[in-house]
Write a structure and sequence with these properties.
- With 158 residues, the chain is mainly beta.
- It is built from no helices and 14 strands.
- A hairpin with a 5-residue loop joins strand 10 and strand 11.
- The radius of gyration is 18 Å and the shape is globular.
Length: 158
Amino acid sequence: DTLEYFCGNRKTFSMAVTRSVPASLELRIDAWPSAAAGLRKWTETAAQDGMTVRHVVSDLVPGAEYTLFRNGARVTTVRSNAAGNVTFETMLSDSQPQTYELTPIPEPGVRWRSWPRGCWACSATHGRSGSNIKMLDVGRDRTYTSPNGKSTRSISCV
């Protein structure tokens, strides 16, 4: 009862989902990059309440952290293994579509936050100075220079 999704012309699966019961499970891929970094987004709809779904997402950056969101709410943070895979389980509690996003945490010290109405922001502490990046806009690259002007860092919000 496992479905494997292959992004592009890949020889190995990009994601595998295994259902706990033999009931219909619809899987729709909404966004999937061909590169190891980037947002992965998909929607699942189960015909039966209480279905547990095991996910294995491949092709990730080895040893990187990712945040899993379900319907816009943060579920957990996972770290990919040496092969660039993460494994997690979810329970589909109703027959409504459930949208998942697996978002890479771009670099150490940067924390992504979800704000009301779908706005995204991130904050970071930069170096020894403790300078804070307070807000970034979705889809825009920003360059942050520390107050002493000695260090510059680019961050991309997706």
